[in-house]
UniProtKB/TrEMBL annotation, chains A, B:
SMART domains: PKS_ER (SM00829)
CC per GO annotation: cytoplasm
PANTHER family: QUINONE OXIDOREDUCTASE
Gene name linked to the record: qorA
Keywords: Acetylation, Cytoplasm, NADP, Oxidoreductase, RNA-binding
Top-level EC class as recorded in UniProt: oxidoreductase
CDD domains named in the record: zeta_crystallin (cd08253)
Known EC number: 1.6.5.5
Subcellular localization: Cytoplasm
Name under which the protein is recorded: Quinone oxidoreductase 1
Subunit organization: Homotetramer.
Pfam families: ADH_N, ADH_zinc_N
C-alpha cells in the first residue's frame, strides 16, 4: 500500500511517500480503506521528535485523524462490519501507527459510525479538533447552557470548533482573534462577540460585554494568566491544551481568591469511553449541520511533507483552515 | 458586651478590647452566647487591610470561627432554639461581624449542631480549617478511597486537618514538613509517609513511595509547580488555598500533557450549602474521634492582639497548633 511515513524523527523532509506492506487486522482491529486524513499540530510534534512516543514503531506512518470504509475485520471485532463508513482520531501516537496510508489496521474501539450526510473530508478534518473541543467543554469545563465562553484564538483549528460547539451547547461566545478578516470568520462561526487581541483590552471589554466569563478556552502557547483571571467570573474554569515548552507567570492570589480552576489535557490521553461519548455527540451535530470544518486545501498523500511545512508555519498565517488529504 | 474589635484596619495594636452594644437577632439570625473562638490567618489579613471587605462594618469585631450556645432566636429563625449548642465559621468577612465577643447575632444558616462529646475549644479550632479541608478534598479534588494525597505543609492548621481527613476518607497520605519534631507530629496525625521538604527530593521520593500522587494539597504561599507537577499522576488534582500576593513560574507543558487540574478556592466564598455538607461530615468525624485539633494555647479575649501577633509570626515557628480564646 502507499503511505506517508518516516524512518526517523526530524524535519518534514524526513517524510517518505512510498510502498509499505499491507497491514492485517488482528484481535479487535478492523482494516480501514482510508478515504481522507487531516493534519494537526500534534502530527508535527510526533514527526519532529518533540512528542515522539518512546515505543514509536518504525517505519512510522504519520497522521492521527481519519475517515474511511471498513474493508475487513479482525477475529475479535464485534461492532463493525465490512462496508461500514467510519471516522476517528487518536492514531499515530502511543505506539500506534498513523493514518496517512491507503490501509490501516485500527482497533474498532477508536472508530465511530459516519453520519449519512457527512463527507469524508469533513469528518477527518473535525476528528481531533472536534473530540478535543467536546472533551474540554463538557468533561473538563462542565459547560452549561446560558454560560459564557471566551475562546482565545477563535479562528484556529480548535478555536473555530470550540466556538461552534459552545454555541450548539447553548452558551454565549466571545472570540478573540486578529484582524478584520478573521474577526468576520469568527462571527460566521456563531461567536456573539469578537475582539481583536492585538488592539482590545480583553478583560475590560469582557467586563463591559458580560461581567466575566464562566469558561476561558486558551489556544495560545503563552497564556497570559493575569488577563485570563481578570476576565473570569468567580468559580470560572480555564482550559489549557497547548504550550508544551512554555513557562509563564502565575498570579496565585488572583486564581484562588476567585475560586477558579485550571484544566489541562492532551486529547490523546483521554479515556477511550470519554472520546466515544464526544464522538457520538459530534456525529449528531455534524449531521444536523451545527458543526463545519473550514478546510484550507485538500491535497494528496504525495503532498504530505509540504502539508507538514504549512502546518508548522500556521502561526505566521500560512493556512486558513484544516489541511486534508484525499486518499 | 465585651468584644475584641478595631475602629480601622492596621497592625495588631489596633485591636481594642472593650464594651460594645449587645447585638439583637433579626430575620433568621440567632443570638449566640460565645464560648470559644479561634484565630486563622484570614483574620489577620482582614484586620491588617490586606483582605478587608469594602463593606466592613466599624467598629469591626475580629474573628471567624466560633462555638457557643443559642441565647435567643430572631423572628424568622426556624432550625435552632435557645439552649442549642452550635459551632460555625465564615463570620467576620463579607460585611459580617466577627466572633471575638460575648454575644453575636448570626444567621442560622451558618451554624451547625454541636456533637455531644465535643468541646467548644475543639469545635472552634476546627471550624474554618475543617470546612476548608473538606471542601478542598471532596468538592474540588473529588478524593476517592484508595487514592494518594500529598499534603505540602502537613503540620500547619489546615495541613494537619487535611492529613486526618484524607485518612478518614480512606486515602494514603504523604505529608511534608521540616524537622524531626514536626515529622513525628505528622505521623501521629496518621500520615503514612513523611518527608522533610528542606532535605528530601520530594518528586523523587514520591515516585519511589507511590509512583505519583492523585491529589496535591499546597499550603505554601509560593507553590513550586515544577516539583508539584513532577510528583503527580496523570489526571491528578492540585489544591491551592494561599499565596494572595505570590507570583510563581508555571510550566505549561508539564501541566497539560499530564491532564492535571488546579483548583483554587477561598473557603469564605464557598456556597453555604456546600459548607453545611462539610460541617455535617466534620461533626460525625469529631464525634467519632477521627478529627482532633492541636491547640497551641487557650487564652482570653483580652489577649486578642497578642494572638494576632503570634499568628502573624507562625511562619517562623511561633506557634504549634491553633490559637483559641475561651469566652
Amino acid at each position: 500500500m502507499k503511505a506517508a511515513y518516516i524512518n526517523q524523527t526530524g524535519p518534514a523532509e524526513n517524510i517518505i511517500v512510498g510502498q509499505l506492506p499491507d497491514p492485517t487486522p488482528t484481535g479487535s482491529q478492523v482494516l480501514v480503506r482510508m478515504r481522507a486524513a487531516s493534519v494537526n499540530p500534534i502530527d508535527t510534534y510526533v514527526r519532529s521528535g518533540l512528542a515522539a512516543p518512546p515505543n514509536m514503531p518504525l517505519p512510522f506512518i504519520i497522521g492521527s485523524d481519519l475517515a474511511g470504509v471498513i474493508a475487513a475485520v479482525g477475529p475479535q471485532a464485534k461492532k463493525l462490519k465490512a462496508g461500514d463508513r467510519v471516522w476517528g482520531a487518536n492514531q499515530g501516537i502511543l505506539g500506534r501507527q498513523g493514518t496517512f496510508s491507503e490501509l490501516a489496521a485500527i482497533d474498532e474501539s477508536w472508530l465511530y459510525a459516519m453520519p449519512e450526510h457527512v463527507s469524508d473530508e469533513q469528518a477527518a478534518a473535525l476528528a481531533l479538533v472536534g473530540i478535543t473541543s467536546h472533551v474540554g467543554l463538557v468533561e473538563h469545563a462542565h459547560l452549561q447552557p446560558g454560560e459564557t465562553v471566551l475562546v482565545n484564538g477563535g479562528s484556529g483549528g480548535v478555536g473555530s470548533t470550540v466556538i461552534q460547539m459552545a454555541r450548539a451547547i447553548g452558551a454565549t461566545v466571545i472570540a478573540t482573534t486578529s484582524g478584520p478578516e478573521k474577526m468576520e470568520y469568527c462571527r460566521t462561526l456563531g461567536a456573539n462577540h469578537v475582539l481583536d487581541y492585538r488592539h482590545d483590552d480583553v478583560p475590560k471589554r469582557v467586563a463591559e460585554l458580560t461581567g466575566g466569563v464562566d469558561v476561558w478556552w486558551e489556544t495560545s502557547w503563552m497564556p497570559n494568566f493575569d488577563a485570563i483571571f481578570a476576565s473570569m467570573k468567580h468559580r470560572g474554569r480555564v482550559i489549557l491544551i497547548a504550550g508544551r515548552t512554555s513557562r509563564v507567570e502565575f498570579p496565585v492570589g488572583a486564581f484562588y481568591t476567585k475560586c477558579l480552576s485550571l484544566h489541562g489535557f492532551a486529547m490523546f490521553l483521554t479515556p477511550v469511553e470519554v472520546q466515544r461519548q464526544a464522538a457520538e455527540q459530534i456525529g449528531k451535530w455534524l449531521d444536523a449541520g451545527k458543526l463545519h470544518a473550514k478546510i484550507d486545501r485538500v491535497a494528496s498523500l504525495d503532498d504530505a511533507a509540504e502539508l507538514h511545512r504549512l502546518q508548522e508555519a500556521s502561526d505566521s498565517g500560512a493556512i486558513r483552515g484544516k489541511l486534508v488529504v484525499k486518499i
